[in-house]
Design goal:
The protein is built from nine helices and 22 strands. It has two domains: 45 residues, no CATH class; 298 residues, Aldolase class I (TIM Barrel). The strands form six sheets. The chain has a nine-stranded mixed beta sheet. Helix 2 crosses helix 3 and helix 7 crosses helix 8. The protein is of the alpha/beta class. Helix content is 25%, strand content 24%. The longest helix is centred in the middle third of the chain and has 14 residues. The protein starts with a strand and ends with a strand. Strand 2 and strand 3 form a beta hairpin.
């Protein structure tokens, strides 16, 4: 018996429709949804992964990636199993694509996770590794316990969640990084087997509600989603519909899972994408998964001076005080403290 899931309804023919994501999987009792963790039964729907995890780890918050949210601090990260997308380029495929529960070798209640995070000295909890929308009940309950202890919460997601579920889910998330995997219907259909428009709708909704700090990541795959035309179109849309102050990360692809025939992303591609985005008015654009002091650092949109020096996850100079650039006093969007956290680039496994 699993945890009683939410966001479903029974159809006239007796089947159960899951309303959590736009797939709207319609199931007979005993059948599992596309995500493989939400299952119909005689009473409705269960979430088989509630309280179970593929592992807990303390990361730098920049790994999510979040560059404008408590920089330099540590964050306790965990995921479960399964996914509601089918990305052929998945970088965590051994977790998100698993079709059994074999990887869920750790158990922890929401309260235990919050208490372990507080004890570790981490400032936040991240729901990541696989998409937290499919374990939304577990993530929300953990977020509630985390907030009781003064901790922040972060969702790392592809943003493929229904309008019915998104308001409650994101109301419990202090920050989110949403993967915008490309900017054409064809790319999403071919490589992820989902539709693009619901994700664009959710990006626009998150940005406009302003309840959750938002950053966006695009993994650039050579020859698949890295053309000048697509990058130009995407960044203009983000400027107009999400806003110029939402940080945008371009991340380097490495061959894995079902796309081993594609080459790794050259650093020059990331730099080219960053230049296109900035030309189109996106104020904070970053390169990721590479050593790039210029592309990884934060620069003031007003005076152009260095605000946060970064080389991958290593941070150096810091020139933000009271949320303002110390050079020109311009307000810098995000959540900043008057000194950097000292976690650095370490990763530390945790047993709860």
């Amino acid at each position: 018996m699993g945890y009683r899931a939410r966001w479903w309804h029974k159809k006239e023919d007796g089947r159960i429709q899951c309303d959590l994501c736009p797939r709207n999987c319609t199931l007979q009792p005993g059948q599992k949804g596309f995500c493989f963790v939400r299952e119909a039964d005689a009473e409705g729907m269960i979430l088989s992964t509630y309280g179970r995890s593929s592992g807990f780890c303390i990361d730098p918050i920049e790994k999510k990636p979040l560059n404008h949210f408590l920089p330099g601090t540590s964050i306790l990260s965990f995921g479960t199993a399964g996914c509601n997308l089918a990305c052929k380029f998945c970088q965590n495929w051994d977790i998100s694509k698993v079709k059994t529960q074999d990887r869920l070798n750790q158990s922890a209640s929401p309260k235990q996770i919050a208490e372990a995070t507080k004890k570790s000295g981490a400032r936040s909890v991240a729901f990541t590794y696989n998409d937290p929308t499919i374990f939304a009940e577990y993530a929300i309950d953990t977020a509630i316990e985390a907030h009781k202890l003064g901790l922040k919460t972060v969702a790392v997601s592809a943003g493929y969640i229904s309008e019915v579920a998104r308001e409650e889910f994101f109301s419990h998330m202090d920050a989110a990084n949403i993967d915008l995997k490309g900017f054409t219907k064809e790319f999403y259909n071919k490589f992820s087997q989902v539709e693009l428009q619901p994700i664009l709708n959710n990006l626009e909704w998150i940005a406009k509600t302003k309840k959750t700090w938002l950053e966006i990541t695009t993994l650039l795959i050579p020859g698949a989603n890295d053309s000048n035309a697509e990058l130009d179109q995407m960044t203009k849309w983000l400027r107009d519909h999400v806003g110029p102050d939402v940080p945008l990360h371009f991340s380097a692809f490495h061959p894995d899972f079902k796309m081993r025939e594609y080459p790794p992303t050259p650093p020059e591609t990331l730099t080219r994408a960053r230049e296109i985005a900035m030309k189109n008015g996106i104020r904070y654009v970053y390169t990721g998964n590479v050593h790039d002091g210029k592309g990884g650092s934060t620069w003031c949109h007003s005076c152009g001076e260095l605000l946060i020096e970064r080389d991958w996850y290593q941070l150096g100079e810091y020139h933000i005080h009271d949320g303002k650039c110390t050079h020109c006093q311009a307000m810098i969007p995000g959540l900043f403290e008057n000194s950097l956290g000292k976690w650095g680039g370490r990763r530390q496994s945790v047993v709860i």
